[in-house]
User: Fold these one by one.
Assistant:
Number 1:
Amino acid sequence: MGKFDMDQLRKQMDDVNLKLLELINERATVVQKIGEIKSKQSMNRFDPVRERDMIDKIISNNHGPFENSTIEHIFKEIFKASLELQEDDHRKALLV
Amino acid sequence: MGKFDMDQLRKQMDDVNLKLLELINERATVVQKIGEIKSKQSMNRFDPVRERDMIDKIISNNHGPFENSTIEHIFKEIFKASLELQEDDHRKALLV
């Protein structure tokens, strides 16, 4: 194993990073649509039961190498960012 | 917009979550391979220059809805978890 393998692996990593970026933003778009519906129906944007349900579905499909606790931590960061995005959208809507 | 749209969006969200899970773990597998090479060549596992380079590549491809700062935050969490995974692998290798 040498420089060639390392370059190949780094290239692969960059590709995965961009696919991840695309999916994280795709998820954010879905979150925004859900936020719009919730806003119209005056529903609470934070839904801990739905969040737990999502985490459970994700964890039950986790075959590593990341541990369940790590996967849960990463997704909770994504959820938190998504909630902030919905709140920003809501604030902007109120300002119109 | 009603219950039907919400159910559809939630289904879409669950699908994206599982694709994200798959990619995050695919990334972790690449990280482990890189960790093995680095271990054999006694290279430092944490490489801030490479990390900055990855973040820059990701950010330059970010078209939202998430802000660059949010994307950077999420990826740094993934990087941190990846480094911990490499360190676990290294500790296990030392124990063999």
Number 2:
Amino acid sequence: MGELALTPDPDASTEEYRAEIAEAVRALARSRRPHQGFDPAYGGEGDVGGVVAAFQMLGHGDLSLLVKAGVQWGLFGGALQALGTARHHDRYLRDMMDGTLLGCFAMTETGHGSDVQHLRTTATYDADTHEFVIHTREPGARKDYIGGAARDARMAAVFAQLVTGGPNEVSQTHGVHCFLVPIRSEAGDALPGVTITDCGVKAGLNGVDNGRLVFDSVRVPREALLNRYADVSPEGVYSSDITNETRRFFTMLGTLVRGRISVAGGAASATQKALTLAVRYGETRRQFSDPATGEEVVVLDYLVHQRKLLPALATTYALQFAQNDLVSQMHDLQKPGAEPDEERQRDLETRAAGIKAIGTWHATRTIQTCREACGGAGYLAENLLPALKADTDVFTTFEGDNTVLLQLVAKTLLSDYGRRVAKLDLAGKVRFGADLVAGTVLERTGARSVLRRGDLRDPAHLRRLLVDREEHLIASGALRMRKALAPGADQFAVFNGAQDHLLAAARAHVDRIVFDAFAAVADRHPLLGRVLALHGLSVIEGDRAWFVEHGYLTAARTKAVTTAVNALCGELRPHARELVDAFGIPQNWLDCPLLDGERTRPTEADEQHADTLTAVG
Amino acid sequence: MGELALTPDPDASTEEYRAEIAEAVRALARSRRPHQGFDPAYGGEGDVGGVVAAFQMLGHGDLSLLVKAGVQWGLFGGALQALGTARHHDRYLRDMMDGTLLGCFAMTETGHGSDVQHLRTTATYDADTHEFVIHTREPGARKDYIGGAARDARMAAVFAQLVTGGPNEVSQTHGVHCFLVPIRSEAGDALPGVTITDCGVKAGLNGVDNGRLVFDSVRVPREALLNRYADVSPEGVYSSDITNETRRFFTMLGTLVRGRISVAGGAASATQKALTLAVRYGETRRQFSDPATGEEVVVLDYLVHQRKLLPALATTYALQFAQNDLVSQMHDLQKPGAEPDEERQRDLETRAAGIKAIGTWHATRTIQTCREACGGAGYLAENLLPALKADTDVFTTFEGDNTVLLQLVAKTLLSDYGRRVAKLDLAGKVRFGADLVAGTVLERTGARSVLRRGDLRDPAHLRRLLVDREEHLIASGALRMRKALAPGADQFAVFNGAQDHLLAAARAHVDRIVFDAFAAVADRHPLLGRVLALHGLSVIEGDRAWFVEHGYLTAARTKAVTTAVNALCGELRPHARELVDAFGIPQNWLDCPLLDGERTRPTEADEQHADTLTAVG
């Protein structure tokens, strides 16, 4: 992918940048790499996991290209493949893969970003003409932030409330479905009834042409409905194997989980690149002298600098292993011929939501820290960090707002928990009740911590703590939510009062999953054990108040956690370069003046001059 | 300042943007507002505090203008005024104030950003010609990131090692001093011996022309030395009233404290603007329905959304009051005719360093949170948050890297503490020793917390906790640092091992100062008491592990802190709009599509349609 190592001119106009990215998308299509993920029957390779992994590699380069490719082959192509049927595949799949049909994914509306089940665009079936009428019925129903809409896309996968029943019968809404709607002529003009506007300049990702779509009774044939999960007969009769509307909608959404996983992968790549730059700079940059030697100290030798970068590096390792698991789990479920498995699909969606949220927040925080760790140099566009920061910022928002995603995770955790409890026999329920009471007592006396002694670096010990926290937060969260079921309870008030608790439970769950993914491979290299320990300990340190508050650690023990984090920072410091090199980012994707110090360490002549200067001072 | 409410085209080229900002700087000069801060003898008004407060107002507008103005009148003008003498003032002060002489402030070098005492540029006195020779002796001595250097500045205030003694005698270095060096002709060309390059596009602040300066034996007259604190006679004899080189250097630096205070002010303004946007958006944006009513919930009614914005809002209030104190303290010390007061000056510098660090980190974090709280809309340039975020990012770095500044604060705290202890008589020292031992015991038993019961919202109680933490961290930090004095100790290792401890002490100190500044005015409005409590409690909550670990709070008590933060979020929610309106940002500086929802709340017609849609669904 060397040809895709774009270094866009940071002073290019938006139009120039968009044009460059559009050209890169065409180059990517020519490479036939995107074909890899699609149905072999249409010239693809069915390697769903491989394409997501390749997509992640793009994240080491220009992120506008990553997102633009993600829109074309992940979102638009993904909807076409997963929600469409042969009639759509036959007609569009090859053109979509080849990039001769550029598409966009028109889900989000101005008024509904997170709550997409309640989108307001309508697709009303007209049985007389056998057409759907796509219509923007209010300002808030405008499709917004749609990547590809402002400049390049010819067709949109439009999500809209499907309405049947004409003027003479009662109309019926069947929930949100996806429709293929041409929006632009080959010449690039908006088609009749479609109003396209440009979202303009953004904080980042300016190579992507985000736009807005308003539909004024735009007619598309009945076949425009992507009808894998539901269909409308020519006469206007709606049918679906999934009778529950909500379940149907979330089944459709679930097939699109690849987008979320891809964003997590892109965030991981960007974080790895930022850390590579900051660690390598930190190994050459010197500031202030050691009083004993008079020599200026390399900044990565300072504890506080290590603290900024090394725990984040350890967590980046952990997230990459979790991402690998996620991708292979997805591959198993989506590869050609795979048997549908509802439970594993549900688990995949929960993991994807959680890892996307935790991973993109980690990216935003870590890239910011890396920028600061590189000082003024980190602020210059030529040193790559500004684009990494600006481009990844919206990752916490798109493909699902992180807070909303964690709520989704929490909801699943609580309902799984509820099912587990419901399955208990009477004796089990009594024991379960007793456990909770005993739990409260333990919490008050701090006696639990007696059980939580052990080597702080031992993965089993760290895991135990993470599991304790996860289980405790889920069980106590479930208890709080039970109140919402009491007669006369204000459900919203109960939920809202516990919202921070539920998010904490979701985080604890994701932390444990991520830790497990890392622990499973930590014996592959002698260094990894310590990286795992640093990751686990820094997660625990970050929430150590919780462990003390709930009696899982004593205050003395949490102090030892901090001491252990510091010690591990010191131990891993000599290996920092090796650890970032292992991310395997090609050097030409990293070249920038920030790393010039690696070539121009002070020469002997400089040193002599410096000595003279100090001597005469 | 209505005319300065710039809304630069986000798609303008760098050159267009720079030109627009340069024009705005001229407009600002014509307004004669910058004159306000300078010596009345030269047409100023001597209102040092007023000008810094006015500068902060600029922070509600375009931040490139803020920084460009800060370079001209704060840094360049400030150096000229504070380090120069009549010979410089007579010749340049009026032109500088009028903006007919545009200057830059050339301190930072590629190799030395934080450790400016060890800059490598030299200014060697040539007694034969009565000139200083300004020279860049190595690549790392290049002046870097200099605002104004790339395009507009005609003159630079250059910081360089002053060297006397010619080829026939031993040369002597007297430390860093400041020199006025012309760098560009009136036509805009670099002068002979001066090589100017452009730092190019940055993550933000692209209306500011940052550049690099390399001097090849550039000669300036002897009088170019800003000689308020030191001079060189025509014969080449160096003299200064301050004999200690380090003390002399930091005395000179200290006079420039205004820059740091101004950055803190700019960060405060930007934070206030971001919060105003996010709170107002959060009051109109609706997402997901209340199951009881079916109505979509305003996002600011969600606990987690309140948690994101309201504690940050409370801390923004606290920081503004601390900033007000800082500005008035500076005004008292720097106003015309003020008596020099070394102790108060030192205190001012420590406060300025601390509040700049804490305030700019708060800005970076809060503006990021506000962007995320506005979802996709927050990512669009038209909604102002992207510029706020990108432009303020470097505030954590320039005018002193925040980590280095906090270290400076810690150093002062420890040496003050050392002096206090040294003054104790023998009995006092014994008691002091006993205290520390007793402290350790208390820490182990957690008995201290008995003393720390009380109303969690009571300012006196909150203050006591903040003072406890500050004093504990300073005393125990001092104890650790004492080890560095032991014979044979590795000073660097001792310091480095305690670096995180020292930074925590500095933070604790700044937190207490900021709290005090707020507490002193909290009775001015009935709401402020609760805002103060939310600020104090959220600071304590953020570090609650520390309070438990050191026996100042029980685990049960820290849980109560979290509960109290949640409760206060709920109580202040109805007042959120009032609280951001009180920042007084003119509406035309806030106008953007993000706030359109305030005008276009769903109409009755929309609501009816929505009901219909729900009813038929």
